[in-house]
Amino acid sequence: MAGEKLIASYDFGTITIDGKEYHSDIIIFPDHVKSNWWRRDGHLLQIEDLDAILNEKPHTIIIGTGAYGAMKVSETVIKHLKDKNINVIIQKTYEAVETYNNLVSKKGVVAALHLTC
């Protein structure tokens, strides 16, 4: 469990990880958090939006699509990740947070979370 980034809490627009509060979309890597995660088209996830994650060669990517699921993940992204043998879990962010905390102790888990709508 050492070094793993656990999510203490999430509420619309705010997430707390290791005692630090974030107010913008984030990517949680095993050893650090990338805040201010911007996407080319804010509510449509595209492959290039995941470049930083793909460089880490994760086993599993958990994608939080927002409190209400407003961020869409294209079929192209899903196919690209599966072709690279990466597990893809897509959920509204409340559920994605719970899934992440349950899987974080496994090797190669990364979460990309949209914090608002």
Explain what you see:
This protein has helices at residues 51-55, 75-83, 93-103; strands spanning 7-11, 14-17, 20-22, 26-28, 33-34, 44-45, 60-64, 72-73, 87-91, 109-113. The chain has one domain: Hypothetical Protein Mth938, Chain: A (3-Layer(aba) Sandwich), CATH 3.40.1230.10. With 117 residues, the protein is of the alpha/beta class. The protein contains 3 helices and 10 strands. The strands form 3 sheets. The chain has a 5-stranded mixed beta sheet with strand order 5-4-10-7-9, with helices on both faces. Strands 1-2-3 form a 3-stranded antiparallel beta sheet, covered by helices on one side. The chain has a two-stranded parallel ribbon with strand order 6-8. The N and C termini lie far apart (31 Å). The longest helix is centred in the C-terminal third of the chain and has 11 residues, at 93-103. The model has no long low-confidence stretch (mean pLDDT 95).
